[in-house]
């Protein structure tokens, strides 16, 4: 096994070095807000003005962080307190229009909830502020009085002063929020009695990182990254690893072919699974997804897989006194890995909105493996039962008269 082991050790070392380079955090380039484009990360700065004509807690914005939205003088001011209450003040040029701020899970409009306001006339006392659920991209899919947002203690408000319109409100977020995508829109014209919003004339998005003091203007499409992460995890942890275990359990008669098949398939599964972790780490850095259990189980599976690789490298000979304990450790670490892998894939698919096609595909794969394992296990038990019966009825080679 010497050359075989050296080959895989070399592969393992090279792959680990590649993954270290891939997982190494990239430093964001810090630039001025005036130089921002759709993919530029900029340092959030405190608002240039110290106050607004609004009432408390929207009047004093010295501790807020601000950014221009590059349309008709619009800007956004935000502040998150220790209770994860985010205070938002949106302001810009008033043109008999509606304005709104949405909270998105991934930066997309679809599925977001938004706070939208407009004035019935030039009198700011006759304002309307509603929550909308953005079911789709067209205005007839913006459902009024629906949404997932929870307002804070301070009441939402709108104010028109000279030519500047203000929309301010507070939102209560879940504990520990650090990064949050927001979307912004403004439209010429006002909703009618049915509260259907006219088509927007301007829209943009921004991801605010409250923990680091940075933001990104523009929508960052993470759908391909999510898809790659899901496919790699399914192929690595959901197909190759269980397949390698099945080869070792049900092909033991093919000595030593089963061992080489088992080792090769497991190494491929480990490398693909490691790539899935690397892509998942990159995805987390982009959206700061709050999937604690998914991440914890994923790193646990990776750690157990690394332990399996180390066990392969340090595999004692069959005559060694510690071989029995090595076998026990190898069996149980492997069993825990093939149990946690599919569980974590399901968690990721359903908590991370993996897409119906990917969900159905993996459920079919999982059902196939379960059914195949049951049939092969029944076949193995019947084979062992026949061998036991044959051994009992076999005539002894040596008999004592």
What descriptors fit this protein?
401 residues, alpha+beta, eight-stranded antiparallel beta sheet, 6 helices, 14 strands, 21% strand, elongated
Question: How do the helices and strands line up, and which of them pair or pack?
Answer:
Blueprint lengths: L1 H22 L17 E3 L1 E2 L18 E4 L6 E6 L4 E9 L3 E7 L8 E8 L7 E8 L7 E3 L12 E5 L2 E9 L6 E10 L13 E8 L4 E4 L5 H28 L6 H31 L4 H22 L9 H29 L4 H38 L8
Antiparallel strand pairs: 1-14, 2-3, 3-4, 4-5, 5-11, 6-7, 6-12, 7-8, 8-9, 10-11, 12-13, 13-14
Notes on the structure:
This protein is an alpha+beta fold and 401 residues long. 42% of the residues lie in helices and 21% in strands. The protein has six helices and 14 strands. It has helices at 2-23, 223-250, 257-287, 292-313, 323-351, 356-393, and strands at 41-43, 45-46, 65-68, 75-80, 85-93, 97-103, 112-119, 127-134, 142-144, 157-161, 164-172, 179-188, 202-209, 214-217. An eight-stranded antiparallel beta sheet has the order 1-14-13-12-6-7-8-9, with no helix packed on it. Strands 2-3-4-5-11-10 form a six-stranded antiparallel beta sheet, with no helix packed on it. Strand 7 (112-119) and strand 8 form a beta hairpin. The two termini are 48 Å apart. The model is unreliable at 23-44 (pLDDT under 50).
